[in-house]
Specification:
The chain is built from 21 helices and 29 strands. An 8-stranded mixed sheet has the order 3-5-1-12-9-10-11-20, with helices on both faces. Strands 7-15-14-13-8 form a 5-stranded mixed sheet, sandwiched between helices. The radius of gyration is 28 Å and the shape is globular. The N and C termini lie far apart (88 Å).
């Protein structure tokens, strides 16, 4: 638009256009949606291989706990296509890939601690040749006693870290005053992340000892550190890049390090590019999962069902090394309260050292495991008192002005759980359906229905305060197009789409003008993992900071050129409104370039107000809380133990959602994934310590037929009280607690077998076998009474 055109536009672009325009808060498609559908989205294995690329595979231990007395790899070296076989002694730098405690070797060196632990790397001319050769080694073992369960770890006092304890008030005195006490134990299983794209890394040697690693990882900076240490180099020698992952769910936060390091070690030793792609069976045998938990609990309560005292002793199956077990246990401790005020408590957690895979992050990161225990107890209290479980839950909810301080000392200032549950109770017809379920069960001797409403409160931030930071780069090009790079990683959850919306909104341009590039440690350094549900919160704020800097520069330039004050210049709908004029964004950008205005900027964000003292287990570890609730209805076949999920009503607090379409999809996906954890996904190790559920044929994730026929998901209308990115709230992990309602609906249906007079000892996952075991217990108890 020339000057005459600008003059004609004077006064013709009404202010309401800019006032009402927004790119955030809109349901926009995932930035890679079309590429996904067309099969054109590039994952690590899709990157064109350079000439001379080799392929690696890992040789794995066949024993759970043993000393290696001899290892013969002659047959491996002689196998077709093999170029090299590398043992621990061939690692040029540090043989370690542990994220916190350095107790996690890349390759076992004399001692193996679980079935599937990597012993050596085979490098060959093809993926198949490498995998076939890896099976040919002859290994002699001197077997040692193995600990396989968290209960056995507790009995042996075998821990990867010192046990932790959080206490508030006088639990012993409160128990003495309680009219009733319930106590027992609960087992909750682990879960395989089962990302669609398995672990993979592609390492390419560069000049002057440089190494570029393409890696499917949630934490490129940690991969950079591990690779640099393994190669004996500085971080500036190594760049790690990830355009997207085919799922992560926590399994690629720390445990992608083994694969990245092994590929890089092989690339250095051979001087050629090396790709390491794990077969699904190997992936499941080698990598850690969600921690399974075993609980011993004791809770005192009054005649109304209000909790007066609570004591819980949790022990996890950490596996053979610490990995992220410490932070996972910490978050479990901090989420034992879930949505309930606990005045006098003692919470203990221990990370059991077992001769199994080193368990790691998984969506929820210990939060679901902590919260399900108190829900189990409240369910028992309701049954003991003959009350509706929702009434007992509501009675124990956190308050808003009092009874609003967590056991770890954080005051809750954003509590909406009561209002949210009231809304869901009404919209789901909970009370009427409870009556209908009871009526159905009275006339149905074999099929029993169950209904449950469960709430959630989930803290948002990394447990470790310094991780709550992020950086970003934003470039505006002369044609008005925008490129953004940030430290978060895209694993299908839509972080790039949300960050692009934030940048577009800040610059006042349409989303189509903005493009996100691959996460790369050479662009934004020292990034935190995309985890703890903080991806959009942290990186959105950092990108907003960068975009705002550019916008302010452009506003100052526009005011210089056309008059008025810089703070009165508006950017919206691809247009710049300045001094009564309206001109296209790209035109102002072009003129700013000629005037040598800087059109790129970095941005940074650090979450304010966080603190945590690991010694006292107190502080202000969370920026805010996300809330939600779900109602689930099931029918259980009491002869086979099978169940069917009939209907789900879920209401989730996403604050002012950045993208409602993506957020609803995240809630739906988290619900089904969490339901799988609690119902069908059973991990089973044999007596020798080998994981037998290491493939889709033996490990049952939910399918389409497991989804409810009637699935109603809504977002709760609630602006975040904290200054989060556009007052939105995180949506990654918290909704995984919503399917607690499925587990307790199943328990409700089993309880109907004994006319709700017996607490079913239902373990998770509630497989057909677990359901039948609980039914047998209820029937026997009913007969005995």
């Amino acid at each position: 638009m020339n000057d005459a055109g600008i003059a004609r536009a004077r006064g013709q672009m009404a202010a309401p256009v800019s006032d009402n325009w927004a790119e955030v808060g809109r349901a926009r498609k995932h930035e890679s949606a079309e590429l996904h559908v067309r099969g054109q989205a590039t994952y690590t294995d899709d990157i064109p291989e350079l000439a001379g690329t080799l392929h690696a595979a890992l040789g794995l231990s066949a024993r759970a706990h043993a000393r290696i007395t001899a290892i013969d790899v002659a047959a491996v070296k002689a196998a077709p296509g093999v170029v090299a076989v590398l043992l621990a002694r061939d690692i040029p730098g540090t043989n370690d890939c542990g994220p916190i405690i350095h107790d996690d070797p890349i390759l076992a060196d004399g001692l193996v601690q679980y079935v599937g632990q990597p012993l050596f790397i085979v490098v060959a001319d093809s993926h198949d040749n490498a995998r076939r050769a890896a099976r040919l080694a002859i290994v002699d073992y001197d077997e040692l006693p193995a600990i396989l369960t968290p209960q056995a770890a507790r009995a042996a006092e075998s821990y990867v870290l010192p046990p932790m304890r959080l206490a508030r008030g006088d639990a012993a005195g409160a128990f003495a005053r309680a009219a009733h006490v319930v106590q027992g134990e609960l087992s909750v299983g682990g879960q395989e992340q089962f990302y669609l794209e398995g672990q993979i890394a592609y390492a390419i040697p560069g000049e002057d000892r440089g190494m570029h690693v393409y890696c499917s990882t949630q934490h490129p900076s940690e991969m950079q550190h591990v690779v640099a240490h393994a190669l004996g180099l500085h971080s500036h020698h190594v760049s790690v890049e990830c355009r997207r992952m085919g799922g992560g769910f926590g399994g690629k936060e720390s445990q992608s390090a083994l694969w990245a390091a092994a590929a890089a070690i092989a690339a250095v030793r051979t001087g050629r590019p090396v790709k390491l792609r794990a077969d699904r069976d190997d992936d499941m045998l080698v990598t850690g999962k969600r921690h399974c938990f075993h609980y011993l609990y004791q809770v005192g309560y009054d005649d109304d069902g209000r909790i007066l005292a609570a004591k819980v002793d949790m022990v996890t199956r950490a596996g053979y090394s610490a990995d992220l077990s410490g932070p996972v246990a910490t978050r479990a401790v901090c989420h034992f309260d879930n949505a309930y005020y606990l005045s006098d408590v003692e919470i203990r957690a221990a990370c059991g050292k077992t001769n199994t895979q080193s368990n790691t992050a998984f969506r929820g990161f210990g939060g679901p495991q902590g919260a399900i225990a108190i829900e189990y107890v409240l369910d028992e209290i309701a049954r003991n008192l003959g009350r509706d479980p929702l009434d007992i839950r509501r009675l124990n909810f956190y308050g808003t002005q009092e009874r609003n301080v967590t056991p770890y000392g954080q005051t809750i200032v954003d509590n909406v759980i009561g209002k949210l549950v009231d809304e869901l109770e009404a919209s789901s017809d909970y009370s009427a359906r409870r009556a209908e379920v009871a009526s159905y069960n009275r006339t149905s001797p074999v099929l029993k229905k169950g209904l449950a409403l469960t709430p959630l409160k989930f803290g948002i931030a990394f447990n470790v305060t310094h991780l709550n930071q992020a950086g970003a780069l934003v470039h505006v090009y002369v044609d008005g197009s925008v490129l953004v790079n940030h430290g978060g990683t895209e694993m299908g959850q839509g972080i790039n789409t949300k960050v692009m919306q934030v940048v577009a909104h800040e610059l006042g341009v349409s989303l189509e003008r903005v493009r996100a590039t691959a996460t790369n440690t050479s662009k934004v350094s020292n990034t935190s993992a995309t985890a703890a549900s903080t991806g959009a919160d942290l990186n959105g704020k950092a990108a907003q900071d960068a975009a705002r800097t550019i916008r302010e520069r452009l506003a100052g330039f526009a005011a210089q050129q056309y008059g008025g004050a810089a703070n009165e210049v508006r950017f919206a709908a691809g247009t710049v409104f300045v001094a009564g004029l309206a001109l296209p964004f790209e035109e102002l950008v072009a003129k700013a370039y000629l005037a040598r205005v800087q059109l790129w900027s970095d941005g940074f964000y650090a979450t304010p107000g966080l603190s945590w003292d690991p010694k006292t287990m107190t502080g202000h570890p969370f920026s805010y809380f996300a809330y939600g609730a779900a109602v689930s209805e099931v029918v259980v076949d009491t002869l086979t133990g099978e169940f069917k999920l009939l209907r789900v009503d879920a209401l989730y607090d996403a604050g002012r959602s950045l993208n409602p379409a993506i957020d609803i999809g995240q809630v739906e996906g988290a619900f089904i994934q969490g339901m799988g954890w609690l119902t069908t996904e059973e991990l089973w190790w044999n007596a020798a310590g080998k994981l037998m559920t290491h493939a889709p044929s033996t490990y049952k994730i939910p399918g389409v037929s497991d989804c409810p026929e009637d699935f109603r998901v809504r977002l709760f209308d609630n602006a975040n009280v904290e200054d989060s990115i556009h007052r939105s709230k995180a949506v990654g992990e918290p909704p995984l607690l919503l399917p607690f309602s499925v587990f307790f609906a199943i328990r409700d249906a089993i309880s109907a077998v004994g006319e709700h007079k017996v607490n079913p000892p239902l373990r998770a996952p509630a497989t057909c076998e677990a359901i039948l075991d609980a039914i047998d217990f209820v029937e026997a108890a009913a007969r005995a009474s």
